[in-house]
Design a protein that fits this description.
GO terms for molecular function: hexosyltransferase activity. This protein is α/β, with parallel strands linked by helices. Helix content is about 40%, strand content about 15%.
Length: about 350
């Protein structure tokens, strides 16, 4: 059983290659999720059984994600408790042999091998005394899982978020991306991928649309990241706005775009690194993880990074042309490692 967190689309998208590999090795797969993430799984694997998990319903309105979540801890603890009770019922009903959870912290079972997929083992929180306290509690909670799969290499794309790992039972499984490497002749100048929680998704969309209207010379495709809609709008002769692209269509759009503008969410970075695509990264305001990842990409010269409030698309595109920017040095051995990891897991349950 594969369970994914509904916080943007990243947890679901990076679980797609895991589900595909399980199916390739003849496993019976049941999926579980909620909200937009659940709908992405259903669209990706329409023939698989799917369960709706209890939703976390965490509101992100403040300037700092972690501080906002601290204020909602009672709601989060209740959601994890209900999620755990729900999972135990489904495991018994479906006779599940193994549970794989992407960041759903209540989706573990004492009698069934439980795997957690996460690149966040060391939360980046300030000030330092608060970081030590929160990480102590967080890492002790993760010990409920038998194994942790880290979608990275040691000291790789996620940097200090996952390296060094404090868990002996953790395994680096390489980057997880739905897409394959390779290049194609660009069909457009810029692809904009909007994602993440509201209201920041809509705020970035408004900024992008306002600036691109002053650059009619660019050929642009904007993907809103709205999985519950299927709309297309032509905004001028060279700009197209679509609500959502799935699977092969999204891969083709990324591959045939000269530059991608998107959030610095980890799943997006894994896709960009796999496809070696030049990118403009805009970390979601108040999300320390995305801010850290964006800073790491800037230091490694993997991407151009701009804040949402200071974004100047024309200037950022010029910066990519003037600098040697790209993910060419990022290691992407996930597809080679994953089959062996999945095989070992399935054999341990037989």
């Amino acid at each position: 059983m594969v369970c994914v967190l509904d916080w943007g689309l990243g947890h679901a998208s990076r679980s797609v290659p895991v589900i595909a590999e399980l199916l390739r090795q003849d496993a019976r797969v049941i999926m579980a999720g909620s909200g937009r993430a659940g709908r992405l799984l259903q669209k990706s694997f329409p023939d698989l059984k799917y369960y709706e998990c209890p939703a976390y319903k965490v509101n992100y309105q403040g300037r700092d994600l972690y501080l906002s979540m601290l204020g909602q801890l009672p709601k989060i603890f209740r959601a994890v408790y209900l999620e755990h009770r729900w999972l135990r019922r489904i495991v018994a009903k479906e006779q599940v042999d193994v549970v794989i959870s992407d960041s759903r912290f209540g989706c573990y079972h004492a009698a069934v091998p439980s795997v957690l997929i996460t690149h966040q083992l060391n939360l980046q929180i300030h000030p330092a005394f608060l970081s030590r306290t929160v990480n102590w509690f967080y890492q002790n909670w993760l010990k409920r899982f038998r194994t942790i799969w880290i979608p990275d290499q040691p000291d790789g794309l996620s940097g200090a978020l996952s390296y060094p790992t404090p868990f002996q039972s953790s395994v680096y499984i390489g980057l997880l991306s739905r897409f394959s490497s390779g290049s194609a002749a660009p069909k457009r100048d810029l692809l904009v991928l909007l994602s993440g929680p509201e209201p920041q998704r809509s705020r970035l969309e408004a900024i992008v649309l306002r600036q691109l209207k002053t650059m009619p010379e660019l050929k642009v495709l904007i993907v809103q990241g709205k999985t519950d809609e299927e709309t297309t709008h032509q905004l001028g002769e060279r700009m197209e706005l679509v609500s959502y692209l799935a699977g092969a269509a999204l891969e083709e759009a990324i591959r045939t775009s000269a530059v991608v503008l998107c959030r610095s969410g980890y799943s997006s970075l894994m896709d960009l690194a796999t496809m070696h695509k030049p990118a403009i990264l805009i970390p979601t305001p108040g999300q320390p993880e995305q801010e850290y990842l964006a800073q790491r990409c800037r230091e490694k010269n993997w991407a151009v990074v701009r804040t949402q409030s200071q974004l100047d698309i024309r200037e950022a595109l010029q910066a990519i042309l003037q600098q040697s920017i790209g993910f060419g040095t990022a290691q992407t051995t996930g597809p080679a490692i994953l089959p062996a990891i999945v095989k070992d897991l399935l054999q341990s349950t037989s």
